[in-house]
Amino acid sequence: MKERKDPEHEFIILRTNDDLYRVERRPSEGTKFASKLRGCKAEDIITPLDEDDYERVRGRTDSKIFMYFAGEPKPDLHTVYNICDAIRKDPDTEKYTLPLFNCFFFARTLTLLIARYSFLRQYCVRISPMDDYSSLAGPAIDAIVDRAINGTLSWDCWISISIFFDSDVRMILLKF
Fold first, then answer.
1. 10 Å Cβ neighbour count for 154?
2. Residue 107 and residue 110: Cα distance in Å, rounded?
3. Chain centroid offset of residue 105 CA
4. Which residue ranges make up each domain of the chain?
5. Which residues make Cβ contacts (< 8 Å) with residue 87, sequence separation at least 6?
6. Binning pLDDT at 50, 70 and 90, where does residue 113 land?
7. What residues contact 127, with CB distance under 8 A and at least 6 apart?
8. pLDDT digits (tens, 9 = 90+) for 41-64
9. What percent of the chain has pLDDT over 70?
10. Averaged pLDDT for residues 63-76
C-alpha cells in the first residue's frame, strides 16, 4: 500500500484468516531530518486493524502489489514478526535511513520475504516433514528453491502476485 499524500509512505496489510494488520517502518518520533539521513532508530510497527480501519486506510492509499496465497500453510503473523525481527537484528538494516532502509525498503523486503518463505513452506511440507528451514545456510535454501521451480508444481500450491497498472513498481525479482 502507498499513501497518496507526500511523502507517500509505504506499508503492507497482512490479512490472516480473520484478522488484519498494518506492518510498517517509520523513523522514531521527533527525529530531525539530518538524523534520518545518517540513520536513526527505526520504529517497526504491527498494528491490528478492524474492517473500519482498513476501509479508512484504503481510502487514503493505493494498492501497489497484491499477493494471494493458495494452499497451506499461508503467511501468518508469527512469520511476519520473525521476518521483521531478522531485519531489526541485521546491523545494516536495524536503523531507519532516509536514502536506504526506509518504509519503501521495509514494505518491499517484507513482500519479497513473505512470498519466498511461504512458497518454500508450501513446497517443503509436501516433500518432507521438515517445515523449519530457517536455520539453513543461503545456498541450501537456494537449492530447495531450485528443486521446487524445476520440479512439478501442483495447482493447489501457488502464489499469485499482481502489480497494479498505475503502480510505480517497475520490477520484482523473486527467485522462486
1. 11
2. 5
3. 10
4. 2-163
5. 44, 93, 94, 106, 109
6. confident
7. 147
8. 999 999 999 999 999 999 999 888
9. 69
10. 77
